[in-house]
Specification:
This protein has one domain. 31% of the residues lie in helices and 36% in strands. It has 140 residues and is α+β, with helices and mostly antiparallel strands. It is globular and about 60 Å long. The strands form two sheets. Strands 1-5-4-3-2 form a five-stranded antiparallel β-sheet. Helix 1 packs across helix 3. The chain has three helices and seven strands; from the N terminus they run E-H-E-E-E-E-H-H-E-E.
Length: 140
């Protein structure tokens, strides 16, 4: 039986920050993400093409044997929606990926904003690559 996808409108609204966050998440979880200028179809756990589409995605092979693709769609208003199957919403690895993505997005947003206000930013990460602290210093 196919797992139904949910479309969750998030607070995210900046594709560049999402790209940066996904890059860090890819390093932390040893996976790859795809980015497409036009939305592409997600794949179900059996490799079947699903009607849902996304601009950014993590293919199911990086998530688990019975997982579906995980995607993010940029809406016409710039809001980013998470496209997640019911099955994957219950999987610890996918929940951990989404949790870390939220942290990395916030870090990317903080750094970008601080830099536009004239700060030099240095982020400190632990051994696994997770951001622990962001240090800000004002240009003199």
């Amino acid at each position: 039986m196919m797992s139904k996808y949910k479309i969750i409108v998030t607070e995210l609204d900046n594709a560049a920050h999402l790209r940066t966050a996904l890059g860090h998440v890819a390093e932390i979880f040893s996976l790859r993400f795809e980015e497409h200028p036009e939305p592409v179809h997600l794949l179900g756990f059996q490799g079947d093409t699903r009607p849902e589409t996304a601009h950014f995605l993590i293919r199911r092979g990086y998530l688990g044997r019975a997982s579906n693709d995980l995607g993010w769609l940029i809406g016409p208003d710039g809001k980013i929606s998470l496209i997640l199957s019911d099955y994957d919403a219950r999987q610890a690895r996918v929940r951990d990926i989404c949790k870390e993505l939220k942290r990395e997005y916030a870090a990317a947003e903080t750094i970008a904003r601080a830099e536009t206000e004239g700060y030099i930013c240095v982020s400190e990460r632990d051994k696994s690559g997770v951001v622990q602290q962001i240090r800000l210093r004002r240009y003199q």
